[in-house]
């Protein structure tokens, strides 16, 4: 049975999708596929996307996000055509929610608080495929509380600093040594770690503005235990999991009184993921060399104001692949390049209430795997996702 992925959002980078990190979905600017995220400065969401832009908000604001993520992850298994179903559906559906708050302190300082997620991954193959002795299902989830303070240097420039208080939880059905007995382990682990963010916002004039957000690397070491499914064996387990540092630059530019163009360029330091190693009773077991490359994401989008109440939004993005070598892919996180198409609207109910609806189609590529280890796995994925949601912002006038 497939497990639903329960996440409080993001970026993330961060939202969850089977077999992929999807970090920049945490930007919560899905209607433009992430374009303009660090430069919008329209609601309390900026406490997550660029806290420096909180300086543009004149009143206390509260935002919520409610969404659903449905993943379509199909794995064609070429390893043993006689003993396994060649076509496996490892996708799932996840409810998602998050909360954001911003308040002015005085003319120079604003405070913000975001409760969301930088990212994670989840995948569920079941027990009827060639790699079931190594892994059947796995979930990683990060939850982050992010208090921020911004300072308005002058009428054009603002800066901000944030503390990233992040909790990691992970669980899975796996056997990292593939020979511990007749059944696999049900393992779980968690960790709490602190990072930081720095951001800046610059407004050239009322028509052009840019924003920058830097998030530090957060190194988790999840500790927990694994219990053999037949109850005969208990082990201490440990796992290092790194949320990579990243830097985003965004811009919003007014073409005319109705039409804005938006863009974002984001760098993720995924090359820090050298390998996947699991500690079992204090003994490190390297599963695979990741050899990931850094990721670059490029997004462009548009806002078109129909009238005083309705605004239409759209965008596209492309994200480079961290790994194209089938021998370095692994079944917990089969990755490739990512393409997104975002559509949405913003509806201004009145000066206090604003609604934004959005839909993202996410093409997660067709990565191949040719893993050679204690168990050999060969196959190809066909991955995609659908992300739909509604944001509500309230301004305390």
TrEMBL record:
Residues 1-17 form the signal peptide. It is a multi-pass membrane protein. Keywords: Cell outer membrane, Membrane, Signal, Transmembrane, Transmembrane beta strand. InterPro entries: OMPP1/FadL/TodX. Pfam families: Toluene_X. It comes from the Bacteria. The keyword Signal applies. This is 47 kDa outer membrane protein.
